[in-house]
Design goal:
This protein has about 300 residues and is an alpha/beta fold. It is about 40% helix and about 10% strand.
């Protein structure tokens, strides 16, 4: 267990009724000995001191523990939903909800036994809990590069406040073949905090830069028609896989996702949901006005 001091977690940022729900759920899981780790805004506040309003509570669990956790929640009168089977379930209490996370949205970082080693402990809403490790939080956030959400600032803040606490060897191992993603964030860290570049160990940068140099000397890959951009954004590289013939990086061994998972996750993109709703409303509006109906494309990649 890490013993370094942590900043207080969120209290004032959460409405009383919502806090009661979160607190009861945390205590129920603790009492039932269902392993979980607190992540998201609550853990980020502990590790960085950054406090922001949050719409939910993120709990990381193993996929094998979901049924037990869901049954426990339902016994308390809280409905559960397997929202996206490849990575996310939800627990509801009125309009409030808790995310039960067992993978990342891109299928790259499944929650396994390694997540539950040497976790820091904190007090969240009055309940003693374990936090998802900085290394796992950082790895998960590093791949979030959507048009509407980019977690690069979270990554930079985690490093800025915890550089001397990070297990850098473990972090490099966590990224594995995706070391380019780590290198890009560390490069940006040096840009954001030019006076603190030295806080990233020299051997880390030298190792990653050496990998880059060695890779540039290799012949072109045999199968160059792969787009790994979908591991960073579920929307912005759809043009490549849908129109240019690239293989979706999520269908390679890099991810646990299946074609069905991808279809469901793609269909949930906000702009596609909006277009679908608008398309469904067209016939109704047209009939009401007595005119002919016409359907437009449902995909907007602009």
């Amino acid at each position: 267990m890490q013993q370094h001091a942590l900043a207080p977690s969120l209290e004032d940022e959460v409405a009383p009724a919502t806090a009661d729900f979160y607190r009861s759920a945390l205590q129920a899981l603790t009492d039932a000995k269902v392993p979980f780790l607190v992540g998201g805004a609550f853990a980020h506040a502990c590790f960085t001191g950054i406090r922001r309003n949050t719409k939910d509570l993120d709990l990381f669990i193993r996929r094998s523990d979901f049924e037990r956790a869901a049954l426990l929640m339902r016994k308390r009168g809280w409905p559960t939903e397997m929202t996206y089977p490849h990575w996310l379930a939800k627990v509801y209490c009125g309009e409030d909800f808790i995310d039960l996370i067992f993978n990342s949205g891109n299928g790259v970082t499944p929650v396994d036994d390694r997540w539950f080693r040497h976790n820091a402990q904190a007090n969240v809403l009055g309940v003693p809990v374990k936090l998802a490790n900085i290394e796992d939080s950082l790895t998960s956030k590093a791949f979030i590069m959507e048009r509407e959400r980019f977690d690069g600032a979270d990554v930079a803040h985690l490093i800025q406040t915890n550089a001397e606490r990070i297990d850098w060897k473990l972090l490099v191992e966590r990224f594995g073949n995706h070391w380019r993603v780590l290198l890009s964030h560390l490069t940006m860290f040096g840009f954001v905090y030019p006076g603190e570049r030295h806080r990233v160990p020299n051997w880390v940068m030298e190792t990653l830069v050496a990998k880059l140099a060695a890779e540039t000397r290799l012949p072109p890959a045999e199968d160059h028609r792969v787009c790994a951009g979908t591991l960073l954004s579920r929307e912005q590289y759809l043009h490549d896989v849908e129109n240019l013939g690239y293989l979706d990086g999520r269908l390679t061994p890099a991810s646990t996702m299946t074609a069905e998972d991808i279809a469901v996750w793609t269909d949930a993109i906000p702009c596609r949901q909006q277009h679908k709703e608008e398309a469904q409303a067209v016939p109704v509006a047209a009939v009401a006005g007595g005119g002919a109906t016409s359907m437009t494309g449902l995909v907007d990649l602009a």
